[in-house]
């Protein structure tokens, strides 16, 4: 995708957490169980999210991670900015140090509306939206596996 690995794992990890709908802290080991999320890397990413005000963490017995706000109040842009900083959308698409309307790179005018659409999407898409999509995808996968299994039995 277009985000750093840290941001991608943050989005995936937070989607898993939000999908549980629990206000009780979730231990990282429990969160990554059954996923391909790398525990140690996600631990570092989640600490950035704690510092960015997206997550809360508690140590010790009964500890773990919880969302700092309800999932519908946490937007994608707040996650991205917590990991990569607020200037993420101001960077030049071709990597030039200085790129603006006054001093555009060769791709500036083409990329500017794309950047704005992406930013609009991230401002309006919440963690609750992502969690709902993740759940729908999991249900779809399970349904598909059952259907495929039934198809295998019919052929026997």
Write the layout of secondary structure elements.
Layout: H1 5-20, H2 28-32, H3 39-51, E1 55-58, E2 64-67, H4 76-84, H5 108-124, H6 127-155
Antiparallel strand pairs: 1-2
Helix pairs in contact: 1-3, 1-4, 1-6
Name some characteristics of this structure.
156 residues, mainly alpha, single chain, two-stranded antiparallel sheet, Arc Repressor Mutant, subunit A
Query: Rg from C-alpha positions?
Result: 19 Å
Oligomer: single chain
CATH homologous superfamily title: Winged helix-like DNA-binding domain superfamily/Winged helix DNA-binding domain
CATH architecture: Orthogonal Bundle
* Helix/strand order, N-terminal first: HHHEEHHH
Arithmetic mean of pLDDT: 86
CATH class: Mainly Alpha
What is the total number of structural domains?
A: 1
Helix content: 55-70%
Shape verdict: globular
Coarse structural class: mainly alpha
Task: Give a written overview of the molecule.
With 156 residues, the protein is mainly alpha-helical. The protein has one domain: Winged helix-like DNA-binding domain superfamily/Winged helix DNA-binding domain (Arc Repressor Mutant, subunit A, Orthogonal Bundle), CATH 1.10.10. Helices cover 57% and strands 5% of the residues. The protein has six helices and two strands, in the order H-H-H-E-E-H-H-H. It has helices spanning 5-20, 28-32, 39-51, 76-84, 108-124, 127-155, and strands at residues 55-58, 64-67. Strands 1-2 form a two-stranded antiparallel ribbon. Helix 1 crosses helix 4 (76-84). The longest helix is centred in the last third of the chain and has 29 residues, at 127-155. The protein is globular and about 55 Å long. The N and C termini lie far apart (42 Å).
């Amino acid at each position: 995708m277009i985000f750093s690995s840290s941001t991608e794992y943050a989005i995936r990890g937070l989607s898993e957490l939000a999908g549980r709908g629990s206000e009780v802290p979730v231990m990282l080991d429990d969160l990554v169980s059954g996923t391909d999320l790398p525990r140690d890397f996600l631990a570092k990413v989640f600490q950035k999210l704690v510092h960015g005000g997206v997550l809360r963490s508690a140590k010790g017995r009964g500890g773990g991670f919880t969302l700092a706000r309800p999932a519908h109040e946490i937007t994608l842009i707040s996650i991205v900015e917590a990991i990569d900083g607020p200037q993420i959308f101001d960077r030049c698409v071709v990597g030039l140090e200085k790129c603006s309307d006054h001093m555009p790179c060769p791709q500036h005018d083409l990329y500017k509306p794309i950047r704005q659409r992406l930013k609009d999407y991230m401002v309006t898409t919440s963690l609750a939206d992502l969690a709902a999509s993740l759940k729908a995808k999991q249900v779809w996968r399970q349904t598909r596996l059952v259907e495929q299994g039934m198809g295998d039995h019919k052929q026997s």
